[in-house]
Write a structure and sequence with these properties.
The protein is mainly α. Helix content is 76%, strand content 5%. The chain has a two-stranded antiparallel ribbon.
Amino acid sequence: MKFLIRMLLSALVLFGVAYLSHDALLRVDSLTAALYAAVVFAVVNAVLKPIVKLLALPLTIVTFGLFSFVVNAAFFYLVEWVVPGFHTVGFLRTVAAAVIVSVSTSIVTWVARV
């Protein structure tokens, strides 16, 4: 049950970032596309993130952890490739969207205590 609530909250955050930025950071065609994107992003984070984190460790250390935001942006591009209706706008804007979505999702799930 917690997983479903987290996915719904993540989808709302994705949709909210796209809506509030007027498609300047992300473009999400519908709430359904945002829900699919949230699920795919969760799967990508669960499967690929540990591997990529290990491979990118030297760059992450050199950049004091900022490279992890680039990794999240790359995951957004992967989600865009898989989910129809979810679109990124540009590299720097995708990095900004990744930061905003990560922070917002953390806050929302903490407030919801999920």
